Amino acid sequence: MRILLIEDDSEAAAYMVKGLREAGHVIDHAATGTDGLFLATSERWDAMIIDRMLPGLDGLAIIQAIRAAGNTTPVLVLSALGKVDDRVRGLKAGGDDYLVKPYAFAELLARIEALSRRVSAVQPETRLKVEDLEMDLLARSVTRGGHVVDLQPREFRLLEYLMRHAGQVVTRTMLLENVWEYHFDPQTNLIDVHISRLRQKVDKDFDPPLIQTVRGAGYTLRAAR
Amino acid sequence: MRPANASLLGTTTFRLALSYLGIFTVSAVALLVLVSWSTTMFIEWQVQETVEAEATGLSEVYRDRDLVGLSEIIGHRVRQDLDARATYLLMGLDGHVLAGNLRAWPPEVGSQVGWARFHIMPTGGLGPGAEVMAQVYELADGYRLLVGRSLADARRVKSAINRALGWGLALTILLGVVGGYFTSRHMLQRVDQMSRTAKSIFGGDMSQRMVLSGTDDEFDSLAESFNEMMDELERLLEGIRTVSDNIAHDLRTPLNRLRSRIDLVLLGPPDCEKYHRTLEETLAEADNLLATFSAILTISHAESSARLESFQPVDLSQLASDAAELYEPLAEEKEVTLTCGVEPGLTVKGDRHLLFQAIANLVDNAVKYTPAHGSVTLAVSSLLEPGMVDLVVTDSGPGIPEESRDRVLDRFVRLDATRTTPGNGLGLSLVKAVARLHGARLMLGDAHPGLEVRLRFVHAKD
């Protein structure tokens, strides 16, 4: 993936550039708002990471400018402002996702990869398939190797999200935000308990296990190697 | 702010008093002129009437009894007129006086006929005498008759009125200036007092408040608003100070632990596996720190926000059901029964995410502190108090002794002294802050056994 990073903190930028390159992405970095806007409009990118507070030109202003120019490249907004209204403002300006500093690198990576998938899957799908796990979105039914898997509505949504991002890492926060649609800090390993329930139904009697735990990051849905 | 006495004449109040005084003076003078003029007119009109009546009487006498009778009557009337208000003169063609109380024909009248005004010489002979209003008739054979009456009374009344009004005016102006001076000095003193209070608050004494005079006037209401503002400000500042104190106290310990852990590993011989393990532990610790930090920020955000205009009606029943659903697997894992009794469709005004965080904290605590085979209930109901919505979380855990119930709402307070259960001691203080932000009452009670936490919201009906 070609990713543009607009971030004025050079240390944070170096850390992100290194991490994203190791994850196999091509990344370019701009340290000011004006340079960033120039790069954003002059080249094609698969995704952009834009810090909200920048010297020269504000991050949200850059997003508004590129959106006004008809550019639909997915944008992840990075910010130290974490209140709900800040988040809403960031998304209203045209951001696709909002990540509050400080964050874990795994979270950033998972989110930026999820963003690129979001664009490729714009047309509505009716069936999802990972290995022998199949989901019919219209009939709201799930089968694994031909056997019906009986899921609660929330479990269905949880599995749907995992399947839509099959092969990618999804973090616990991403699951809370997208499956339960609440921004909050669970004080306990809530998501882990829900995942372990889902595993009981999807993986227990089948082989290979599909729901994998990624240490220090979250979960991913793929056949274990 | 200027010093009181030097700038008194320049105060708004004094300027206002002066301009009112000016307007009042002009209208008083206009009134005075009008009163004086109309009084004079009225008296002169009366004099004129009297003169006319007398002249008519005398002309009848002349018609019936000729000059001789007329002279007699005039003589008689002059004798009767003791206070010398009336003036008569009957004079022949050659200028000799037949009857009357004037020595000669007044030169101011001359040969004119009809109404005339002239002055008679006073007996003392000094200065102009009283003004007389008279009617002059031509009789047969060149005889002329003058009938008049003194205007001295009218003049006296007029000058008495003028004098009275003049004094009144002078007194008005004097009272106006003095009153204006004292009023503005009074106001200025209060403004000065307020300004001094404000200055000492600037100076850092946040406990200072405006003094109320108790008269319930505009200054009192201004002072009251100011005091309310200061209370709120002080509360917010206190909040900020508590947060920084807490950050200092409660984040320093784990940070120090983090540091010494790294330190210790670096002191030992290089060992790749040990490094890896330490780094993982450090990362977990850092994540904990970040979680604590963001909880502190959420609390301060909830504490410092005003009740936002942007608060939307939120389906509290839905939030409670979602929270129950979210925590149900966790409860099951702990072998705790989580039951949810929610009256559907109850809405309150608020922030959806903060409210959910508060409910989640309550359920999380309840599940955490309830031993295996215990039960946790989450209920939302509007039936307990009219116009209110109650959210109640009950557990069958150890509960909280009554004397500690206030204390657990403070930050970082954990009754479990050994700190074996996970948590940062911020859960209930966040609930408290969210409750305050939403104008909800937070009540801790006994569930016999266990803890009952009740949040009472105002029901937002549309």
Automatic annotation (TrEMBL), chain A:
Residue ranges flagged as DNA-binding region: 125-223
Any GO CC annotation of this UniProt entry: cytosol
GO molecular function annotation: phosphorelay response regulator activity; transcription cis-regulatory region binding
Keyword Cytoplasm (UniProt): no
The keyword Acetylation belongs to this UniProt entry's keyword annotation: no
GO biological process: regulation of DNA-templated transcription
Source domain of life: Bacteria
Domain Response regulatory: 2-116
CDD domains: REC_OmpR_CusR-like, trans_reg_C
Annotated protein name in UniProt: DNA-binding response regulator
Organism of this sequence: Paramagnetospirillum marisnigri
Automatic annotation (TrEMBL), chain B:
Major location (coarse): membrane
Subcellular compartments: Membrane
Entry keywords, A to Z: Kinase, Membrane, Phosphoprotein, Transferase, Transmembrane, Transmembrane helix, Two-component regulatory system
Transmembrane segments: 17-37, 164-182
E.C. designation(s): 2.7.13.3
HAMP domain location: 185-238
Pfam families: HAMP, HATPase_c, HisKA
Residue span, Histidine kinase domain: 246-461
Any one GO cellular component localisation term in the record: plasma membrane
Tree of life domain: Bacteria
Example GO molecular function: phosphorelay sensor kinase activity
SMART domains: HAMP, HATPase_c, HisKA
Catalysed reactions, semicolon-separated: ATP + protein L-histidine = ADP + protein N-phospho-L-histidine
PANTHER family: HISTIDINE KINASE, SENSOR HISTIDINE KINASE YKOH
Name the UniProt record assigns to this protein: histidine kinase
Protein source organism: Paramagnetospirillum marisnigri
